Amino acid sequence: MQISFILNGRPTSVEVEPSMLVADLLREQLDLTGTHVGCDTSQCGACVVHLDGVPVKSCTLLAPALDGATLLTIEGLQGEPGSNRLHPMQEAFREHHGLQCGFCTPGMLMTAIALAQDKPNLTEAEVRHGLEGNICRCTGYQNIVVAVMAGAAAMHAAGGE
Amino acid sequence: MKSFAYHQPSQVPEAARLLGALEDSKIVAGGMTLIPTLKQRLAAPPALIDLSKLPGLSGIKDEGPTITIGAMTRHADVARSAMLAERLPALATLASLIGDPAVRNRGTIGGSVANNDPSADYPAAVLGLGATVVTNIRDIPADQYFVGLFETALQPGEIITAIRFPVPLKAGYAKFKAPASRYALVGVFVAQFTDGVRVAVTGAGPGVFRVPPMEQALAQHFDPSAIAAIKIDTEGLTSDIHAEADYRAHLVTVMAKRAVDAALS
Ligand SMILES: Cc1cc2nc3c(=O)[nH]c(=O)nc-3n(C[C@H](O)[C@H](O)[C@H](O)COP(=O)(O)OP(=O)(O)OC[C@H]3O[C@@H](n4cnc5c(N)ncnc54)[C@H](O)[C@@H]3O)c2cc1C
Ligand code: FES
Ligand code: FES
After folding, report:
1. Taking CB atoms and an 8 Å limit, are B182 and A19 in contact across chains?
2. Whole-structure pTM over 0.80, yes or no?
3. Closest Cα partner for B171 from B249, B93, B232?
4. Which domain holds residue B4?
5. Between β-strands B47-50 and B26-28, what pairing exists: parallel, antiparallel or unpaired?
6. Contacts across the A-B interface (CB distance below 8 Å)
7. pLDDT (tens digit, 9 = 90+) per residue, B197-216?
8. Hey, what CATH topology would domain A88-157 get?
């Protein structure tokens, strides 16, 4: 079936099997490999993308759900094409060592950005509750939580985008 | 995953007709249970009927003595409803404790109630509030709806369109989460009405159930102390790698007390 959606700001139209998962569509058909597949069983959150502005697990989303929707992936966070400007949340992860191997990071960032957009002043408890669906095997979470709090503050200082 | 045909009907009767006409076809709502099942090839339906384009299936309506929640309403929308925070906060709290944000953004109340997972949260609220499961053909009272492990009174091809909750005087929900899955190891929903109290337990057994001795004690005195000494029988409770039956039985009393506490606060 033919589906049309806005992908990282650009109108996109593709032919898919209804059983195609969005994570596979992104990685295999659209060459957007920033979205990771860690578990493929809806547990780890490495595959989180924003569907119509809210975080969802792209390994547990059928491609037909994209039709008419707006999709934002980790690749869509950068500013102008070619600019190396990081999103304030990405910058905070870099600054506060919020990653080691980096496998979980795209999903962490997408979840964290949605969390910060939802609530201006996040408490540590809210950050930990909000990250329950994102698993990291390296960091022990401490620096991720610190980075999300700093990134959220930076996002709001920059106008909440 | 095996391939399948995909239908997005725009009216409930059309969805029902497709379900009846296409053998072994399945409804997909949020997909948070169905898609993992398809991936594991535990099911291989030749066609999926997607309910997301049906008008009027999503949303929360305050009708005074009752609140009706459309089947396609996502857990996240129940969790953040200002009206529920005011009128039935226990239900909003329950929704906010399901899974994680991404699961709550897709999963629906209709899907959860149709699936009737023995550790799911919503069944505790549906039974604990004595809600009505509204389908395309009839109204099913909660006391008749939950039949057993993943089993409900739904007939093949029947579609849940909404859940209608009576508004209690007070209600509370407390859940002991299984740390990895966040499903309820034990969850207890307690609701006080003018004519009595209902206590419903999820997670502890093969399906959600009521606890009449606790209901009677709380009807006399709506306070955690009234049920502190009531232990439920371990007979029929689940024992698995997460917890033995006697630990689950213990948790039922602890969670029931916390649910009453939550209702009073
Ligand atoms: C990582 C993870 C964690 C989770 N944690 C929890 C938790 O803590 N607590 C909890 O309660 N749940 C939890 N869930 C389950 C989640 O709440 C699901 O959303 C829910 O069980 C199913 O809802 P759905 O809308 O996704 O249904 P789907 O997966 O689309 O459908 C489930 C079943 O119901 C049928 N169905 C769906 N809608 C209808 C309808 N309107 N009428 C008739 N039949 C219908 C489908 O055919 C299918 O058989 C979790 C899921 C995941 C992936
Ligand atoms: S890959 Fe989607 S949740 Fe792990
Ligand atoms: S940084 Fe390695 S999994 Fe999180």
Report:
1. no
2. yes
3. B93
4. 1-49
5. parallel
6. 71
7. 999 999 999 999 999 999 99
8. DNA polymerase; domain 1 (1.10.150)
